[in-house]
UniProtKB/TrEMBL annotation:
It comes from Sporosarcina siberiensis. Keywords: NAD, Oxidoreductase. This is diacetyl reductase [(S)-acetoin forming]. It comes from the Bacteria. Belongs to the short-chain dehydrogenases/reductases (SDR) family. InterPro entries: 23BDH, NAD(P)-bd_dom_sf, Sc_DH/Rdtase_CS, SDR_fam. Catalyzes the irreversible reduction of 2,3-butanediol to (S)-acetoin in the presence of NADH. The keyword Cytoplasm does not apply. It catalyses: (S)-acetoin + NAD(+) = diacetyl + NADH + H(+). Its EC number is 1.1.1.304. Gene3D superfamilies: NAD(P)-binding Rossmann-like Domain (3.40.50.720). The keyword Oxidoreductase applies. It is an enzyme of class 1 (oxidoreductase).
Length: 258
């Protein structure tokens, strides 16, 4: 019998990350979840343990390189390898460009961009040692293809994620490591609750109105669930995607077309 593969997911405590974890467990992976929110992480890990899923966890901040290295180490200690590493953790920031504050912009880049780079570095170091290659998967967004008004800083971080995905794919191809990204649209998670609240403040909308307004532009006529993202990430994590690298693919129900 072949060894069970291990998938590491940052921001795995809730939202899309938790959805990815559910799907990859079903696909047969052992899981290592990390999150900076210890409470949600522990609750999610317990849910998986209750279903007898092989799982380990690490409380850490993706914007700290030492935490990303320790996360990889946790996976190696528990399961012996890192076969898939998903840089899923991210934050948003709603503000018109006139109101973007230096500290807030810095935090956005620290987590969404620097955090992704540190995750790529830590994962690639381990995957090279294993000599079996691996799959690094990054969270991009439709906003990484077409910047969104009121989400300028956030969009810029996702453009940067796309750039690192392309460059990393080229640099690590010789090590049998592929690097791709998923680009969701409007997913009903805590992130969108906060975006909606931010739009209320800046645009004088009612609660829930921004979410509804953005949903109107979805060709398939509904907002997205974490499972919709997970169906695609399952492919990226599988050998079916072995000939794909450097791509940031829209999985958005039809919002951005390019
Ligand atoms: N919700 C949406 O509509 C979309 C989300 N995305 C991206 O998908 C990813 C996941 O988003 P959601 O699940 O919606 O967000 P969420 O806010 O529901 O969950 C994100 C998780 O990441 C954790 N996290 C945040 N900063 C962290 C840090 N520095 N270190 C470790 N963990 C950290 C949070 O504690 C939380 O558990 C993000 O990268 C986001 O930009 C992309 C497109 C659309
Ligand atoms: C949060 C996010 O990435 C979008 C596209 O809404």
């Amino acid at each position: 019998m072949s060894k069970q593969k291990t998938a590491v997911i940052t921001g795995g405590g809730q939202g899309i990350g938790k959805g990815l974890a559910k799907r990859l467990a079903k696909d047969g992976f052992a899981l290592v979840l990390s999150d900076m929110n210890e409470e949600v992480l522990n609750a999610t890990v317990q849910e998986f343990k209750d279903q007898n899923i092989n799982i380990a966890s690490y409380v850490g901040d993706v914007s700290k390189p030492e935490d990303q290295k320790a996360l990889v180490q946790t996976a190696v200690e528990h399961f012996g390898s890192v076969d898939v590493f998903i840089n899923n953790a991210g934050i948003e920031q709603v503000a018109p460009i006139d109101n973007i504050e230096p500290e807030a912009l810095e935090l956005l880049f620290q987590i969404n961009v620097f955090g992704t780079v540190y995750g790529i570095q830590a994962a690639a170091e381990q995957m090279k040692k294993q000599e079996t290659g691996g799959k690094i998967i990054n969270a991009c967004s439709i906003a990484g293809h077409q910047a969104m008004s009121m989400l300028a800083g956030y969009s810029a971080t996702k453009f940067a994620v796309r750039a690192f995905t392309q460059a990393a794919a080229q640099e690590y191809a010789k090590d049998k490591i592929t690097v791709n990204a998923y680009c969701p649209g409007i997913v009903g998670t805590g992130m969108w609750d906060r975006i909606d609240a931010g739009m209320v403040d800046y645009m004088g909308l009612e609660k829930g109105e921004a979410f509804k307004k953005f949903a109107e532009d979805i060709a398939l006529g509904r907002t997205q669930e974490p499972e919709d993202v997970a169906n695609f990430v399952s492919y990226l994590a599988s050998s079916d995607s072995d000939y794909m690298t450097g791509q940031s693919i829209m999985i958005d129900g039809g919002i951005v077309f390019n």
